[in-house]
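Saturday, quiet lab. Running sequence design on the structure tokens for the scaffold JK sent over.
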């Protein structure tokens, strides 16, 4: 136990160095993807971020304000959007060292009220888009690269009103586990980060202030997570410090279990 605690302490003080590594982040204009892009740039990486919106990417780029950041408008829910990203990466002539498949959306409603459009939008973005981005960028991954997929604690919970969203994240976990097996021969590690309730623009868009208070109170630490706390975990999983971790789901949830959105 003592050795284990020392190990955790050591991790706290490890400086993540990604100097000149090439990082691709889907959904990097706001929230967790944005915080992760910022952290990778600070750690010395060249970072590509995507989103559906040129305006949102311009704002993100202005906030990070670094020549190491590049943006691509790419709607991950459409194969044509993924092709734009694949072309940009191919034309750069660089291999990708870290792929963070993070773009995602959520709609919280009871099953009785969920529409076909709600279902398709969430599956097309969170599952189909993630799957085909992985497939299309696989030839561009460096041997020994790291892939991190954003899942969610709801993938393994039965949270009220999250039927379709939870199902998409359950699918993400299974894709990640199979990818970890398939890519192991190229020494590529594939892991999942599963945030609990985290303060982001995306969360603000789908839950009320009252629901956020409820979510915060449902964590052992009695607060929402911060996007930079998820980013730190992504950098750890992508780094050599996690060199024997693959196919793993790391929960970053403040000890949250069994919360329900009202
Ligand atoms: N916040 C939480 O509590 C929480 C908890 C667990 C898991 N997650 C997961 O964390 C990830 C990030 O969520 P967040 O909370 O940071 O939300 P966010 O602030 O809304 O960020 C989502 C990002 O994905 C992009 N995006 C959405 N649809 C896209 C599409 N079709 N193509 C390309 N980009 C797209 C958005 O960009 P544009 O809108 O500019 O296109 C934005 O950059 C998601 O996978 C989410 O499911 C979040």
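Result came back. Writing it out in full:
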């Amino acid at each position: 136990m003592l050795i284990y605690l020392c190990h955790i302490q050591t991790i706290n003080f490890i400086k993540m160095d990604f100097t000149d590594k090439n990082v691709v982040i889907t959904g990097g204009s706001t929230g967790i993807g944005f915080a992760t892009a910022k952290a990778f740039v600070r750690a010395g990486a060249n970072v590509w971020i995507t989103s559906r919106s040129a305006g949102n990417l311009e704002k993100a780029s202005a906030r990070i304000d670094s020549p190491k950041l590049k943006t691509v408008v790419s709607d991950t829910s459409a194969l044509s959007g993924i092709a734009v990203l694949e072309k940009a990466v191919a034309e750069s002539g660089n291999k990708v060292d870290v792929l963070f498949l993070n773009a995602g959306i959520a709609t919280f409603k009871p099953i009785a009220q969920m529409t076909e459009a709600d279902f398709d939008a969430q599956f097309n973005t969170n599952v189909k888009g993630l799957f085909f981005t992985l497939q299309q960028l696989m030839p561009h991954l460096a041997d020994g690269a790291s892939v991190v997929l954003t899942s969610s604690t709801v993938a393994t919970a039965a949270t009220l009103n999250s039927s379709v969203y939870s199902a998409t994240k359950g699918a993400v976990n299974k894709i990640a586990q199979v990818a970890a097996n398939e890519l192991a021969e190229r020494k590529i590690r594939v892991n999942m980060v599963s945030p609990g309730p985290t303060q982001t623009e995306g969360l603000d868009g789908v839950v009320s202030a009252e629901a956020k208070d409820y979510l915060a109170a449902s964590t052992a630490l009695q607060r929402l997570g911060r996007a930079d706390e998820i980013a730190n975990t992504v950098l750890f999983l992508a780094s050599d410090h996690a060199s024997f971790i693959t196919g793993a789901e790391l929960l970053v949830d403040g000890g949250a279990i069994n919360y329900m959105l009202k």
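Notes for JK: The domain at 17-252 is CATH 3.40.50.720 (Rossmann fold). The two ends are 40 Å apart (CA to CA). Ask whether to fix the surface positions before the next round.
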